């Protein structure tokens, strides 16, 4: 069976993102969309990234146009997120989060969480230092509501972190 560390994505710049590089880190994975009414959450997500990155938090945004709320090009999405929300965490090229041609990462995350379809943009997955899913958060769950879970995950040692699925 695959682990989170078996996946790769492509950053908007074209650079590969190898999830094996995240071993021992806490990882927050978010499917994003620039034109979504929930896009202001990017400010809170960026704030968490800035405050906790030095302690081991990594954030990865995966834009999706599956709900018809993303800009036409990856470059436009990247510029929009930086200009309007100050995003500095890595963003990937657009992916699909549901269906036969969904990104394999989302197939894995949904199966691991025990939940089906991604119902809307800004579904969030928190992965512990041990590579295990801690929680899946609904689109309307703001970053402030799961900050304590991030702090707890950051305090856990990689070898002792527990999954709280």
TrEMBL record:
Q: What protein name applies here?
A: Glutathione peroxidase
Domain of life assignment: Bacteria
Work out whether the entry's keyword set contains Cell inner membrane. Answer: no
- One of this protein's GO BP terms? cellular response to oxidative stress
Q: Does the record bear Disulfide bond in its keywords?
A: no
Annotated GO molecular function terms are:
glutathione peroxidase activity
**The reaction(s) this protein catalyses:** 2 glutathione + H2O2 = glutathione disulfide + 2 H2O
Mind listing the UniProt keywords for this protein, alphabetically?
Oxidoreductase, Peroxidase
The similarity annotation says: Belongs to the glutathione peroxidase family.
Instruction: Tell me which InterPro entries the record gives.
Output: Glutathione_peroxidase, GPX_AS, Thioredoxin-like_sf, Thioredoxin_domain
Thioredoxin domain residues are 1-156
């Amino acid at each position: 069976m695959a682990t989170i560390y078996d996946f790769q994505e492509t950053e908007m710049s074209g650079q590969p993102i190898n999830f094996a590089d995240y071993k021992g880190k806490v990882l927050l994975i978010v499917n994003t969309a620039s034109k979504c009414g929930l896009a202001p959450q990017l400010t809170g997500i960026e704030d968490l990234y800035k405050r906790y990155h030095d302690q081991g938090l990594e954030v990865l945004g995966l834009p999706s146009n599956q709900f018809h709320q993303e800009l036409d090009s990856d470059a436009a999405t990247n510029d929009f997120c930086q200009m309007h929300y100050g995003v500095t965490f890595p963003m990937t090229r657009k992916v699909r989060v549901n269906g036969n041609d969904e990104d394999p990462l989302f197939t894995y995350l949904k199966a691991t969480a025990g939940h089906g379809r991604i119902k809307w943009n800004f579904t969030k997955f928190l992965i512990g230092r041990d590579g295990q899913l801690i929680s899946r958060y609904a689109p309307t769950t703001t970053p402030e509501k799961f900050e304590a879970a991030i702090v707890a995950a950051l305090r856990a040692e990689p070898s002792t972190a527990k999954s709280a699925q």
